[in-house]
Give the backbone structure.
Amino acid sequence: MIQFTTWDILRGLLLATRWTILLSLVSFAGGAIVGAILLFLRIGKAKAGRVAVRYFVELFQGTPLLMQLFLAFFGLGLFGIDVPAWLAAGVALTVWSAAFLTEIWRGCVESVAKGQWEASASLGMGYIQQMRHVILPQALRIAVPPTVGFSVQVVKGTALTSIIGFVELSKAGTVITNATFQPFTVYGFVALIYFALCWPLSKSSQILERKLNVAHRNH
């Protein structure tokens, strides 16, 4: 019987952590790009765009991420399309992230005082100029802390991708546990690694929120 040392277990988990980090970065970046596009449709003047984005957000916020992963992985398979687990995981997490980021950012834009719109309009600014020079700079400052905070949810959401066969940290933990029969050691390390990934992000969000609030009050 093969004997696994503590270092063997930790090394295997750290190797899998690379994929957790990569998937988190790709999903968050992709979600941010899609979310920014949807945001402009959501707050735009075209009613069809606003309604379409609202239903999109409600659909992906109102259904479990696990179900979305299943549909991304198995749904296209019904049409004879073979979807790799990493691609299905990336697409599902990107769309899920976009839905939440769109709403986070919409709330930040709408939190800008109505007087800012009126003042910029009185200066003869058009809608694009208002957004670029007045509204978005203020909304961006408000949006930074919750956006960084949401990145923690993306990291933790990657754990669900193990259900479709993507080998990230939690999936590696299961595989290593089956090989070593040391669940306490393995999942103890898994928990510590997730904490090491998520705690700095959570702390950064809190620090940014305090600093930006102070800057806003001083301004």
